[in-house]
Amino acid sequence: MLAALWAEPRPDRPPARVWRDWAVVAVLVTSSFVEMLLRDDRAWAPLVLSVSLVVAACLLWRRTSPLAAVAVAFGALLAFDIARIVAVDATGLQSIAGVLVLPYALLRWGAGREGALGLGIILIWLPVTLVVDPTSPAERVAGYGFFLFSAALGAAVRYRTSSRVREIEQVRLRQRNELARELHDTVGHRVSAIAVQAQAGRALSAADPVRALATLVTIEEEASRTLKEMRALVGVLRDGTDADLAPRRGLADIERLARPGGEVLGVRVQVSGDVEAVDPAVSTALYMIAAEAVTNATRHASGATHVTVDVTASGRQVRLRVRDDGEASTASPTPAGYGLRGMAERASLLGGTLRAGPDPDSGWSVDASLPLTVRAS
């Protein structure tokens, strides 16, 4: 833990000087001049004033160079206090109290090793100055308490800010993952369907021009829907609205995945049970999982001739099974594919489970089980 604290880097982008910094320094400098004029001992006034001005100037660099500011300010105070012990018969300026800001800045903006070294310098100066100005035990404790509280406050503000930054980054990462999943499952599926239809149209162009023309119409419709969904995604990214990322689809749309065999892989769809009772969010997730599984089978199922999609709603669960009859050893997508990851995430977010892998009989199967309804959180 100590090693981690020592290696802690500086916070990113410390704020630059603003007018308030100059105002604080101006107040400290002005009060130093006023206090010097009201002092009875004028002999060492220039020296005392110089130390006060050095401390005030260090406040301007307390964020960008916190260790240097602490070292210069408290080094000047330490040298002045040692001089008071040895030769100088003068009291300090009360306006130097502005130095209390530096421990806060040190722990707020400094790196871990800078904080440790800076606190060491402060803890060296404190007993010296308490020796120069005799105080009671209670005043000594209060003196240490003031500076340690200032440092602790800086560390607390830094920790709270860092926690907030981490929370924001986690939210952004979650949003990026959601957008990536929607982009892959909606637009990616549409583009895959367009590619499959284009392959079929090319195969039919010479032998059956009429069917080839029908295929072109299907490609046009798919392209229009893809463009609509892409615009919806772009609208969310640009405007930051809370609208759905894409038009909602559900179990009723799963039947549209069916297609006869022939030039492309055939898909058979069967839906049974009380599908009307399925929650809309679950229904949409089932469609996305089924569409992605069919797309994966089309791309990766070697030797497959058809895909079966079975949806069964019973009791409190709705089950989806997508299976192809390809070769089990080569039917799987790549292990790190976004499709499998997205399907698993969709099922998990709704409290369900998903298994994808070689089927014991042959081919590749995707089995998902989701609750019929989603509990409100």
Automatic annotation (TrEMBL):
<keyword id="KW-0808">Transferase</keyword>
<feature type="domain" description="Histidine kinase/HSP90-like ATPase">
    <location>
        <begin position="283"/>
        <end position="373"/>
    </location>
</feature>
<keyword id="KW-0597">Phosphoprotein</keyword>
<dbReference type="InterPro" id="IPR050482">
    <property type="entry name" value="Sensor_HK_TwoCompSys"/>
</dbReference>
<feature type="transmembrane region" description="Helical">
    <location>
        <begin position="141"/>
        <end position="159"/>
    </location>
</feature>
<dbReference type="InterPro" id="IPR036890">
    <property type="entry name" value="HATPase_C_sf"/>
</dbReference>
<feature type="domain" description="Signal transduction histidine kinase subgroup 3 dimerisation and phosphoacceptor">
    <location>
        <begin position="176"/>
        <end position="240"/>
    </location>
</feature>
<protein>
    <recommendedName>
        <fullName>histidine kinase</fullName>
        <ecNumber>2.7.13.3</ecNumber>
    </recommendedName>
</protein>
<feature type="transmembrane region" description="Helical">
    <location>
        <begin position="68"/>
        <end position="86"/>
    </location>
</feature>
<keyword id="KW-0067">ATP-binding</keyword>
<dbReference type="InterPro" id="IPR003594">
    <property type="entry name" value="HATPase_dom"/>
</dbReference>
<dbReference type="GO" id="GO:0046983">
    <property type="term" value="F:protein dimerization activity"/>
</dbReference>
<dbReference type="GO" id="GO:0016020">
    <property type="term" value="C:membrane"/>
</dbReference>
<keyword id="KW-1133">Transmembrane helix</keyword>
<keyword id="KW-0902">Two-component regulatory system</keyword>
<feature type="transmembrane region" description="Helical">
    <location>
        <begin position="116"/>
        <end position="135"/>
    </location>
</feature>
<keyword id="KW-0472">Membrane</keyword>
<dbReference type="Pfam" id="PF07730">
    <property type="entry name" value="HisKA_3"/>
</dbReference>
<dbReference type="GO" id="GO:0005524">
    <property type="term" value="F:ATP binding"/>
</dbReference>
<keyword id="KW-0418">Kinase</keyword>
<feature type="transmembrane region" description="Helical">
    <location>
        <begin position="92"/>
        <end position="109"/>
    </location>
</feature>
<dbReference type="InterPro" id="IPR011712">
    <property type="entry name" value="Sig_transdc_His_kin_sub3_dim/P"/>
</dbReference>
<keyword id="KW-0812">Transmembrane</keyword>
<keyword id="KW-0547">Nucleotide-binding</keyword>
<feature type="transmembrane region" description="Helical">
    <location>
        <begin position="44"/>
        <end position="61"/>
    </location>
</feature>
<dbReference type="Pfam" id="PF02518">
    <property type="entry name" value="HATPase_c"/>
</dbReference>
<dbReference type="GO" id="GO:0000155">
    <property type="term" value="F:phosphorelay sensor kinase activity"/>
</dbReference>
